[in-house]
Amino acid sequence: MSTSTSRPPQVYRRGTWARITEGLRYGGGIGQWSWLLHRVTGLGILVFLIIHIIDTFLVVAYPELYDHTVAIYGGSITGLPTSWSMNGYYWPLRWAFRIGELGLIACVLFHSLNGVRVVMVDFWPRASLHQRVMFNWVLGIFVAIMIPVSIWVLLPLRHAPEMHSRVITSASM
Amino acid sequence: MSTAALASDMRTLKVKIKRYNPELDEAPHWEEYTTEADPLDRVLDVIQKVKWYQDETLALRRSCAHGVCGSDAMRINGVNALACKILVRNVKGDTLTLEPILGLPVIKDLIVDMKPFFDHYKSVMPFLINDEPAPTTERLQSPADRARFDETTKCILCACCTTACPPFWSDNKYVGPAAIVNAHRFIFDSRDRGAQERLDILNDAEGVWRCRTVFNCTSACPRDIKVTQAISEVKRALLGGSIEMDRDPLQIIEA
Amino acid sequence: MAYSGIGRKVRPNGGFELAWWFFMRISGLMLVFLALGHLTITHLINSVENINYAFVASRWADPQSGWIWRLWDLTMINLAVLHGFNGLRQILWEQILSPSKRVIASTIIWGLAAVLIIGGSYSILLFQENREYIQKWKAEREAARFAQSARHIQ
CA-to-CA distance for B231 and B210, rounded, in angstroms? Predict the structure, then answer.
């Protein structure tokens, strides 16, 4: 028997990493990118949803801890609301939460608009003929809403939070 | 345009091919070739030129070379297509990138193992089912009823759609767009009586419900079948329990 | 004999995956209004920096409109958790193919979803305004503001 240096024939099966990188290089166009964005924004919203349900649970269980957490959202390290005292105010914290808030709004808005497009493709028989136009509408509405919303959400960052900020609750305040 | 003018348009193309030799390689690697190509050459001609004059070890599948047999499906510049249906003049840039289609095991170079694909195709029973007594003449059908599934009869089983589908890339249990198209061809055929059985097969997590309406299949189909739409029609038949035979007449004209 | 297929009926299939597919579309359409409305109220009309226990209490414990807010939040939380975790399941099912691993993954997914639905519904339905805490909070706020202005004057 002659010895062979070659290995017996086999097939190449792509691993997870190869599937992801080769898949991302696929030139699928609008449909593929909207699908990927829908998935990424959906996962982002889910992560936020889990955090948000847990912090809302604090409203019932530990009101102090809830106010403490919310004050941190407002940029306070000490957990004392910035509308009371500016002692623990740390602007990068406030900026990070504001930008994160804007990201959340963007995720929910895109997921909603693209979700409506997906539902239309599923239920309106002629929709799949117009899916590209529909995606342009999704993008158009998204940009049209996000521009004023971004300004509105980011504008308060120009100044430090007002100490005696607007009282938003009813007579109990 | 005269032939002389065309001949002067010869382009130098860099051809990047993802090679895999099962006897030597652990994983595929890229190899580059340079060749002259006429704008009216097809990509298949370019590959044949490389194989015949530069590297005879290059392996690919091809048969009719006229877009009918569906054997030379590959990824051309990132998108699934038949190499015999893409002209060199439609290739953007000076590089032609060729890879085997995704989602199926690679046997050698551009050849993939099509067995999983055909197993999915067989699973939807792609043949006429009708146990009623056969008439003495043909089973006749009105032109409108024939037009209802005309588009899905065009499938040549090249696997361009199924291997363009992101869910299929990772989930090889998914039946895939091509199998659903071929199920659609019989479900919406008024002579067929097996719609219920096919719908039962497709009513599964690995059936039509794995479809995420990515539309990669529709844009990859070399026969211009509106694959995503066909899948949506099967979904609606499952949901509503009736087969929409009276499709919008406008759509029949467009198709 | 011509075979006419007009109006052919088949048995509606039903089934687990079809039901989930339909649920994703219906809940998605409802969440478009519920979630975007919720975002508009909490992030645009009000500001996250002003939201606190007293704000939540004023909405949920209001004798007239409290039930509307509670119903809104309850519907939203349940639909969103089911919609989100089923979406996660569908993503994972493309990656996890072995049946035994899918059982483990479902257990984790639906266990977490159940905890969140029970916890969230509990907070919304059984919430009772803690007046004592709000009074204490107001007093602390006044003290903090007084201390702050005193520091300003110096």
Answer: 11
Length of chain A equals: 173
Q: How high is the ipTM of this complex?
A: 0.88
Give yes or no for a contact between B188 and B243, defined as CB atoms under 8 angstroms apart.
yes
- Mean of the pLDDT values across residues C116-145? 88
Q: Specify if A107 maps to a domain.
A: yes
Q: Return the amino acid letter for C91.
A: I
pLDDT grade for B249, boundaries at 50, 70 and 90: very low
pLDDT of residue A172: 40
Give tens-digit pLDDT for A12-36. Answer: 999 889 999 999 999 888 999 999 9
Nearest CA in chain B to A29: B216
CA C126, CA C61: separation in Å to the nearest integer? 10
Are the C-beta atoms of B128 and B191 separated by less than 8 Å? yes
B74 closest CA partner among B36, B95, B104, B53: B104
β-pair type (B29-37, B79-82): unpaired
Q: Which of C22, C90, C94 to mutate to test the interface with B (most CBs of B within 10 A)?
A: C94
- Tell me the shortest Cα–Cα distance from B216 to chain A, in angstroms: 5
Chains that touch A (3 or more CB pairs under 8 A): B, C
Residue with tokens 């969440």: C31
- Alpha-carbon torsion, ordered C59, C61, C63, C69, to 10 deg: 40
| B226 touches C: beta carbon within 8 Å | no
Distance CA A124, CA A14 (A): 37
Do B63 and B138 fall into the same domain? no
Which residue range is the domain that position C131 belongs to?
51-153
Question: Would you state the structure tokens that stand for residue B216, as one six-digit string?
Answer: 């990669």
Percent of chain C with pLDDT over 90: 51
What is the predicted pLDDT for the residue at B102? 94
- Rounded to two decimals, what is the model's pTM? 0.90
CA nearest to B211, candidates C58, A35, C8: A35
Show the domain range for A41: 31-159
Nearest by CB to B141, from C3, C8, C18: name it: C3
Range of the domain at B70: 3-112
> How many domains does the structure of chain B reveal?
2
Q: Where is the domain boundary, B58, B92, B112?
A: B112
Element (H, E) at B31: strand B29-37
The total domain count for chain C is: 1
